[in-house]
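Minutes, methods subgroup
Present: GH (chair), OT, SY

1. OT presented the first of two proteins processed in the latest run. Sequence and structure tokens recorded below as shown on screen.
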Amino acid sequence: MRILILCSGNTCRSPMAEYLLRQKFTDAGLDDVVVTSAGTGAREGSPPSEGAYLVSLERGLDLTNHRSRLVSPELLAAADLVLCMSQHHVTHAQAMGTHPAISLLGAFADPDSPAEVSDPFGKDLETYRNTLAQLDGLLTAVVRKLKVSGGSPGSD
């Protein structure tokens, strides 16, 4: 299975989510899942934001090699599941062509959870920590849901 995570600049939320989700799948023994990320307004090749880098290191995630990339129709087509941080990311991805499995991360993880993940860009480290904690809970639910469904994004 291939999962693409989308945010705006691909320097904060989506790289934190990408590396955290990879770790969660590895910990769950699901090594056949490929997780990548991109941004709807990303500047190609930018490193992660300092806040994302630092709070990820606190959690044992090293974003050193991450470089941002702009979402494209090819990236969307290669993914089995596209998880978006905000509704405008969903809208942007859908406007690039049809893809059957584009969802807000929060809505996919848990219909009762907050649907959007707030953007910590430019804020203090505590805000980044809160965002990473929110991602942690949502991504744990994603792994659980995909494990139960046998890896099919449309199953419950």
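2. SY then presented the second protein from the same run.
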Amino acid sequence: MKRKKRRILLVDGYNLIGAHQELNRESRISLEEPRTKLLAALSEYHAVSKYEIICVFDAYEVKSQESIIGFYGITVVYTKEKETADEFIERFVHDNYHPHLCEISVVTSDLTEQNSIFALGAYRISSREMWLTLSKAEKNISRKIEAINEKVPRQKLNIGEDVHAKLEKWRRRRF
């Protein structure tokens, strides 16, 4: 029996936020809202892609342990103190990449990081390209929802207003 190849999408979260004009602007005020919006977009993409998605945020200047949480089907990693997202991603690719068992794609626009993970065997996706992919996926999801809604009947019976009024009177027992 052939084992199914794991497909992992590793995302440098702050790099992706920095590549989006609106989220980048919001991140100057607070990081919480842009992170939540990014994670929501990634979770929607996860629903239609065949990727296991891991989004990494570095906590380089924050005194903390590494923490891993789930967010609607995706894994969110906050790195430990003095570890950058790039370092975590490189370690993850080194530890998990296998040409026959695991395909890893890394989303970052950091050229040094792209070269490092490419040398380790992972694919690279620029942040700009990922935003285009996320936008396209969102449009496809919206089209599918609209198509489903068009097929759903508005009422259970297609009846005229006069029949509807008569039935309503009977229902209220006003003959």
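Chair's summary of item 2: Strands lie at 6-12, 52-57, 67-71, 74-78, 102-107, 123-125.
Next meeting: continue with the remaining queue.
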